[in-house]
Design a protein that fits this description.
The complex is a heterodimer of chains A (about 775) and B (about 350). Chain A is built from 18 helices and 37 strands. Chain A has about 775 residues and is of the alpha+beta class. Chain A has 6 domains: about 60 residues, Phenylalanyl-tRNA Synthetase, Chain B, domain 1, CATH 3.30.56; about 110 residues, OB fold (Dihydrolipoamide Acetyltransferase, E2P) (Beta Barrel); about 190 residues, Phenylalanyl-trna Synthetase, Chain B, domain 3 (Phenylalanyl-tRNA Synthetase, Chain B, domain 3); about 70 residues, Phenylalanyl-tRNA Synthetase, Chain B, domain 1, CATH 3.30.56; about 180 residues, BirA Bifunctional Protein, domain 2; about 90 residues, Alpha-Beta Plaits, CATH 3.30.70.380. In chain A, α10 crosses α12, α13 runs antiparallel to α15 and α17 crosses α18. The N and C termini of chain A lie far apart (about 90 Å). By secondary structure, chain B is of the alpha+beta class. Chain B has a 7-stranded mixed beta sheet with strand order 1-4-5-9-8-7-6, sandwiched between helices. In chain B, α1 runs antiparallel to α2 and α2 runs antiparallel to α4. Chain B is rod-shaped, with a radius of gyration of 41 Å. Classes of the chains: A alpha+beta (about 775), B alpha+beta (about 350). Bound molecules: zinc ion. Zinc ion binds next to loops of chain B.
């Protein structure tokens, strides 16, 4: 909300420094988003055009004599065409400083010009919001007065953010009230007594029927003698500074009162209300209404409207309808200052897709008491403009203060950590307009009974009052105390597991990425967002791999990445969410034989090292298959009989489709399946030396290293302390359907040194056993 | 006898010459084998002792032994000379130590995790636990239990991705407050980090998916000042020892009193009026906080007259923007290798 400081200063004598005020507002809970610094303008005075004649030497120029108060009238030439004798205008005198220029004596086609007639633009006001040419001041303006100070053009403009609970502060008076309380300064409110005393002519008395509980109060007031035209310059300038475009005197008055008091108003052409009788009711189903912006809107019973017996004249709290519109020929109006249910206005405005300054206030639910203030201020201004005000009529519940809140004084200290004397607390609350009484209750001990002011609807419990005390005392002064937390039994295990995994994988040389959980790919059991931002973000992912592939495709060079995240799928109407870790890499193509894949073995090494570190156990890897992976280069990692991870080369067809140019490998670990860490037990090295035998074997192609190792170890028994396949060969030298494996067998005794004879005997047994599996020593 | 001496002298002279000429260990070894080896020249001289008359033999043996001892000493000296020369040659090398290093294979956790861990390590040191929870949550945990009933205007502030009538991707980590408090009696001291989702248009300051870190402490005798104390410590752990924390009044449905939390601008320390990071205010906004609303405590069965608590929720990416001076929040989701390496 844009707030001209000059307007605020009308109600409270604020300090000179704009930044000090902005800082104060921020510390009261109203951050200042922006400060519009007004340019320095001097030497512009109120003047009246005494005479105006055509310039003798120039067709396009006129020469005027201008009375600027206590000095000889000035002679000024102008090219403006909207000037006439008798007008009161701003005049820049010799030496005046304007944003773009300094006024010096000069000759205009032979005539000495002693200044300049000034336009809105030259006063740094938006020119498109004001008359072309010279700005027209009101006739009553005091000649010779400094225009800039008199009209508040020198005060900076603050753009203040107001939280949704403080609709009472979404106006100049509201912020003035806060600043006055905080600075300890008196507040001067504008004339607020309703000048309307006259009794309407017979039959012209407005009546309002509240046919919906969502209108709690409605002040209606009739004005005659209306002449629609421009509003006085002071009001137009003030509105412009506040960011509100001046339209005409009626619209400007309603905007002015809304910005000043917070109460949105609506004016009806009195002659367009049938029988002077308004009804606040639900909208008709499918009812069509043309609003003031010219658009046709379709209502529903959800919307709240103000109508006469024939037609809808206004969408309550949102926007007026054309049927009741004030026009240039309007001479009498009925003012509406009403209070509506915020939820109802919000629903109406949302359903119509129509928001206005009024609805943005109403939807936060205003205090009913503000209706009377709004009506009174409007009446005051309209009378100033020459209208006749009749008496206001209020419909609905009388304005009542809220029930008092009991604030236990000990709760102030309990919640804020401050010890504050009761008197200080009470004076803070009184400064904010609360009525405060000291009481003693059995439950709460010494307490204050606090009745919030009529304009505050956000204060309803003791904690709300505590916040007010903290605001007045200054949030800056909240003490900084480190608490000592008593023991509790909440576990951090899941967090620790994820971090542990992340650090282990990082240590294996992978970088952690973050990608979107929403993607455009649909799976058989995928979970769908009802209202996606785009088709690319319609489905929750069921795997981290598509994001990894997109990364591989983007980066297009060997890279190693990992991610820990949630994946989602729908299962019998339920959404199943689980945490997974995926890591993987791309590598330059290798020139190894097709039957061999060192990258796969590196990936397996990373997977097994990770699982050992996390579970304390050696995983078993078995051939497996899964969509998206190469059918011959994929394995599951088993720990304690449970598949906890799988890994392999990504299916080259999928990677090609995803524009991944390089071979890609990935491993996925399912966090929920990881068993708790098993504490390993130390095995001391044997005191006696070991020996080893290397065998080169020719085996059937389907033989696996793991099976071969297991057979050898089982055959030898306790003497075998290690067996490891360390080489493989396939090719013409071993023939079709066969391959050669080299294996090293380590033999050792724990009670004495093993002899060559023992070792050889063990190997003999191995060869016999292997013969049964179709293995022979390679010649 | 003099014949033997002559022979030995000659042999010794030639041996010394061989040692002097030797340029490497192999040449020395050759000289040792040739002269002192099993079938070397000294051995042949020793064999000749047998032909001497017996009375002369002991003296001859002594003479030979003395010569051998002297030769062995020379050999050792030559060896030491050679190895000294090798050391000297090695130590005389001057490589270019400024030559680019051979890079080890490195990896790293994401800055989001790094910040989360740093915050967690500060809070766990003070007795907090860290809990994780689901990202798909019912509206009850996201809103109703947090004092945001169905018609509350604040729901619009959490513009969420809905999956069904009642299920949504959590727009904040606050559901973990409710879940934890419903499962444990006070005291409760937790951090809840994790992914959150809001329907924000993506730009340099916004992502529709981000990480939040939530803190909650509920116990007897917990007050607003404890929140400031912990957040001051957290900011010092994250941004440096000079950090301070400022509260400003604000509004959140689930806290009362509520506060926006600012910390000293880590770039200018509040001293530069032209600072691009804080706009000259000297303060950087971190996020929301406040004393847990009595309705929230009641919802989980805690008596607000007995227990009090505070909570805060900060965007982790935002903390990173401040800490690392990252120019654009989309850098996180791009996860470019260079970004990850720089912040590793
Ligand atoms: Zn700064």
């Amino acid at each position: 909300m844009k707030v001209p400081l000059a307007w605020l200063r009308q109600y409270v004598d604020l300090p000179h420094d704009t930044d000090d005020i902005a800082q104060r507002l921020a510390m009261l809970g109203f951050p200042v988003e922006d400060i519009e610094r007004r340019p320095a303008i001097t030497g512009v005075l109120v003047g009246r055009i005494l005479t105006l004649e055509k310039h003798p030497n120039a067709d396009r120029l006129q020469v005027g004599t201008i009375d600027v108060g206590n000095q000889k009238p000035l002679t000024i030439a102008t090219a403006a065409t909207n000037v006439a004798a008798g007008q009161v205008i701003p005049v820049a005198t010799i030496g005046a400083r304007l944003p773009q220029l300094t006024i010096e004596p000069r000759k205009m086609r032979g005539i000495a010009s002693e200044g300049m007639m000034v336009s809105a633009d030259e006063l740094a006001l938006p020119p498109e919001w004001f008359e072309d040419g010279i700005l027209q001041l009101e006739p009553a303006a005091v000649l010779g007065e400094n225009v800039v100070t008199a009209y508040g053009l020198d005060g900076d403009v603050l753009d203040v953010e107001v939280t949704s609970n403080r609709v009472d502060a979404m106006c100049v008076i509201g912020l003035a009230r806060e600043l006055a309380a905080s600075y300890g300064l008196p507040l001067r409110l504008p004339p607020a007594g309703n000048p309307g005393t006259a009794i309407e002519p017979s039959g012209a008395e407005p009546f309002v029927e509240l046919a919906s509980p969502d209108c709690t109060r409605f002040v209606a007031q009739r004005f005659d003698g209306i002449a629609v035209g421009p509003a006085p310059a002071w009001m137009r300038m003030r509105l412009a500074l506040a960011g509100q475009r001046p339209i005409n005197n009626l619209v400007d008055v309603s905007n002015y009162v809304m910005l000043e008091t917070g109460q949105p108003l609506h004016f009806y052409d009195a002659d367009k209300i049938q029988n002077n009788r308004l009804i606040v009711r639900d909208g008709g189903d499918g009812e069509k209404v043309v609003t003031l912006d010219g658009a046709e809107r379709t209502l529903s019973p959800q919307s709240l409207v103000i109508a006469d017996e024939r037609q809808t004249l206004c969408i309550a709290g949102v926007m007026g309808a054309a049927a009741g519109e004030v026009t240039a020929s309007t001479t009498a109006i009925v003012l509406e200052a009403a209070n509506f249910s915020g939820a109802r206005v919000r629903r109406t405005s949302k359903a119509l897709g129509l928001r206005s300054e009024a609805s943005s206030r109403h939807e936060k639910t205003l205090a009913p008491a503000v209706t009377d203030l709004g009506a009174a201020r409007a009446a005051h201004l309209l009378v100033e403009l020459g209208a006749t005000a009749y008496r206001p009529h209020a419909f609905g519940a009388p304005v009542m203060p809220q029930p008092p809140i009991v604030l236990a004084l000990r709760d102030v200290e309990r919640l804020l950590g401050w010890q504050l004397p009761a008197e200080r607390v009470a004076s803070h609350l009184r400064a904010l307009g609360c009525a405060v009484e000291s009481i003693e209750t059995i439950t709460y001990g010494p307490s204050l009974q606090v009745t919030p002011p009529l304009w505050r609807r956000d204060l309803s419990i003791a904690a709300d009052v505590v916040e007010e005390i903290a605001r007045m005392e200054g949030y800056d002064n909240v003490p900084s105390v480190v608490p000592s937390v008593a023991p509790h039994d909440v576990s951090s295990a899941q967090f620790q597991l994820e971090n542990r995994l992340a650090h282990e994988v990082a240590a294996l040389g992978y970088y952690e990425i973050v990608s979107y959980s929403l993607g455009g790919r649909r799976y058989a059991d995928s979970v769908e967002v009802l209202d996606p931002l785009s088709e690319d973000q319609r489905y929750l992912r069921d795997s981290l791999l598509p994001a990894a592939m997109a990364y591989f495709a983007d980066y297009d060079a060997p890279v190693r990445i990992f991610e820990i995240g949630h994946v989602f799928r729908s299962e019998e109407g339920h959404i199943v969410e689980s945490a997974v870790l995926s890591f993987g890499f791309t590598a330059d193509p290798s020139d190894e034989p097709a039957w061999h894949d060192a990258r796969f073995l590196q990936l397996k090494g990373d997977c097994e090292a990770l699982l050992r570190a996390i579970t304390g156990r050696q995983p078993q890897s078995v051939r497996s298959a899964r969509e998206g992976f190469h059918p011959g280069k994929f394995a599951a990692a088993i720990v304690d009989g449970q598949e906890v991870a799988h890994f392999g080369r990504l299916d080259p067809r999928s990677t090609a489709a995803a524009k991944v140019r390089l071979p890609a490998y990935a491993c996925t670990v399912m966090l929920e399946r990881l068993p708790d860490y098993a504490i390993p037990h130390y095995v001391a090295p044997a005191k006696y030396p070991s020996t080893y035998r290397d065998l080169a074997l020719v085996v059937p192609l389907e033989e696996t290293a793991a099976e071969l190792e297991r057979t050898i170890a089982e055959t030898i028994g306790a003497l075998c302390t290690g067996v490891r396949v360390f080489d493989e060969y396939r090719g013409p030298q071993v023939g079709d359907g066969q391959k050669s494996l080299a294996v090293r067998i380590t033999l050792q005794r724990f009670d004495t040194t093993i002899t060559d004879e023992e070792a050889d005997a063990a190997i003999e047994r191995v060869l016999v056993a292997l013969r049964d599996r179709g293995a022979v020593i390679r010649q | 006898m003099s014949d033997l001496t002559t022979k030995l002298d000659d042999l010794h002279r030639r041996f010394s010459a061989a040692l002097t000429a030797a340029e490497d260990e192999r040449a020395l070894e050759q000289a040792r084998v040739d002269y002192l080896g099993r079938s070397g020249e000294v051995t042949q001289v020793r064999r000749a002792i047998g032909q001497l008359p017996p009375p002369e033999r002991p003296a001859a043996g002594k003479t030979i032994n003395a010569a051998v001892a002297s030769m062995e000493a020379e050999l050792e000296a030559a060896q030491s000379r050679l190895s000294q020369r090798a050391f000297d040659a090695d130590l005389a090398q001057r490589i270019d130590v400024t030559f680019p290093a051979i890079s080890p294979r490195t990896g790293a956790i994401n800055p989001v995790r790094r910040i989360t861990e740093d915050v967690a390590s500060y809070f766990t040191r003070h007795g907090f636990a860290v809990v994780l929870g689901p990202e798909v949550e019912p509206d009850y945990y996201n809103f109703d239990a947090l004092n945001i009933p169905a018609d509350h205007p604040a729901r619009e502030g959490f513009d969420s991705f809905w999956l069904t009538e009642t299920l949504l991707l959590r727009p904040h980590t606050s559901p973990m407050q409710i879940r934890t408090m419903q499962q444990h009696r006070p005291p409760v001291a937790i951090l809840a980090p994790g992914k959150c989702y809001r329907r924000d248009a993506v730009d340099a300051r916004h992502l529709f998916q981000f990480h939040q870190i939530e803190g909650l402490l509920v116990a007897q005798d917990v007050h607003f000042g404890h929140l400031k104390g912990m957040l001051t410590g957290m900011c010092r752990a994250l941004f440096g020892s000079g950090q301070n924390v400022r509260f400003r009044p604000s509004f959140f449905p689930f806290t009362e009193p509520s506060a926006e939390v600012d910390t000293t601008c880590p770039r200018c320390k509040g001293l530069a009026s032209q600072c691009g990071m804080c706009g000259g205010s000297g303060w950087i906004e971190l996020g929301g906080s406040g004393m847990v609303h009595p309705n929230v405590l009641r919802e989980v069965g805690y008596d607000p007259d007995v227990y009090a608590g505070w909570a805060f929720g900060f965007g982790v990416e935002r903390l990173g923007l401040i800490r690392y001076e990252i120019d654009d929040i989309r850098r996180y989701i791009d996860s470019d290798p260079d970004f990850l390496r720089q912040l590793a």
